[in-house]
Amino acid sequence: MDGVQVRLPLAPEPMTRRDLVSMLMAAAPGGSAAGRVAVPVHRITDAHARIPSDWLRHFWWSIWPECVRDFGRGGIDLVTTDGPGEVRHSAADRPYFLGLRRGVVNLVLTSYLPLYWDDARALAGVTTIFEGYHVCLIALAYAHGNQAPFVSVNTCTHELLHALMQDVFVTRPKWYQSGSREFAADYYATLLWVFHDGAAVRRSAREYVARLREGK
């Protein structure tokens, strides 16, 4: 048609990977990126322990991805770094660590927990503040993924929740406090796993990360 200009709509800009990630995060149960919580986790594999390769494969291909997924669905992002390290033992089997960092949760993978902490109970993990370092020690011999809601949940999720729910700041808990903390960790892990509900964990995690960065 002479004298008439037809203005065609512009082609949409191609979606970048960052755009896609932002869209998925906003649509996730955890809410928008602004409402999410980033938790710094430094991962160490104990070079002093003899860890079978199948244990490591099971952890990296099953247990850890499940843990990251459950926290992610609840609005908590585990921001990871990796480095070398070891768990050594004194004559009394008191552990001491090489390679730990401050201002992060040190997730240390070993074969079995030291008797100093395990006391022949075949524990899958322990989370504590050890000489000022925040340590989450995982025994790969007993670590497992989600098995039964409220009863047997992902070992990594359970142990990290002891940090994020600030249990690590309670010194010398009473026996009944220890029991309630274990149940609470399984409870919040189940909310993340089954219901993708991380509201309570996010609130506590924000406070925890702030204290972690302040070195408290």
Distance between the termini: 75 Å
- In percent terms, what proportion of residues is strand? 15-25%
Report the CATH C-level class: Alpha Beta
Domain count: the total is 1
The tally of strands reads: 7
Q: What's the CATH topology label?
A: Collagenase (Catalytic Domain)
Order of helices and strands: HEHEEEEHEEHHH
Globally, the shape reads globular
Polypeptide structure, described:
- There is one protein chain.
- This protein is α/β, with parallel strands linked by helices.
- The chain is built from six helices and seven strands.
- Strands 2-1-5-7-6 form a five-stranded mixed β-sheet.
- Helix 4 packs across helix 5.
- The relative contact order is 0.15.
- The N terminus is likely disordered.
Which properties best describe this structure?
alpha/beta; 6 helices; globular; disordered N terminus; 216 residues; two-stranded antiparallel ribbon; five-stranded mixed β-sheet
